[in-house]
Design goal:
eight-stranded mixed sheet, about 240 residues, two-stranded antiparallel sheet, alpha/beta, 10 strands, Rossmann fold
Length: about 240
């Protein structure tokens, strides 16, 4: 029986036990992050319901995926979602912090929809607090963890609001280098709401490219062709 959750084309995500529900941020990042054909191992940091990890398994037919989160109840639901998806044999979920995660091998691709709202007032709900604030994973600690776990030539992708993107890049300056970024607008006039950034451990040979992605360009529910093309393998409505 399917509980509170979200149904995609090839899998269903229950998220009733998770503080942060399935949303546009995770779906966008899971579809946008580059996963090369020769990728062997993928890590999803702060997996929540397991959405990005399961999307990665759908996108690559052979890669092994690890998903980590500090929320025990959430990891229980992550494992339930993994078990119910078509690629469960290639995904493993771990109840651990990034700081304590010690896998046997490094990762070709690391993806994270990380906590943010660095300076905002903490809400009363502790679970949502952990999921949405950097109190348990600072941007410096995120950078440290990525560098420790990223394989040579690997890429790290994340999504954040513009101000938090600047904070993260400041924390990662001289250690992680931007190779690609996409600025996300809700509508043509909304301004930048999110930035998806791809980074690597070595300075890139060429300057990073920056693209624009508008979600709705024709009024309410008038999704842009670029947005539909990016997410069509996942959303039922496309």
């Amino acid at each position: 029986m399917r509980g509170k959750g979200f149904t995609f084309k090839q899998f269903h995500i229950n998220h009733g036990k998770c503080a942060m529900k399935v949303g546009t941020d995770g779906t966008l990042l899971g579809a946008w992050a580059h996963i090369p054909d020769n990728c062997q191992r993928i890590l999803d940091i702060g997996t929540g319901s397991g959405l990005i990890a399961i999307m990665a398994a759908q996108r690559h037919s052979e890669a092994l995926i690890s998903a980590i989160d500090i929320d025990a109840e959430c990891i229980t639901q992550t494992r339930e979602n993994i078990e119910a998806c078509p690629w469960s044999e290639r995904i493993e979920a771990f109840h651990t912090s990034l700081q304590e995660f010690a896998p046997e091998a490094k990762f070709d691709v690391i993806i994270s929809n990380p906590p943010f709202f660095v300076d905002s007032q903490l809400p009363p709900d502790q679970q949502r607090s952990m999921a949405r604030h950097t109190a348990t994973l600072s941007f410096k600690e995120l950078t440290d963890g990525v560098l420790r776990l990223l394989a040579p030539g690997g890429r790290f992708s994340l999504i954040l609001p513009p101000t938090e993107t600047d904070r993260f890049l400041s924390a990662a300056r001289g250690r992680l280098f931007v190779t690609r970024r996409t600025e996300v607008h809700s509508t043509p006039t909304s301004g930048v709401k999110r930035i998806m950034t791809e980074l690597q451990a070595d300075p890139p040979a060429e300057p990073a490219t920056t693209e624009q992605l508008i979600i709705e360009d024709q009024g309410m529910l008038g999704f842009s062709e670029k947005y539909k093309a990016l997410t069509k393998d996942f959303y039922l409505k496309f």
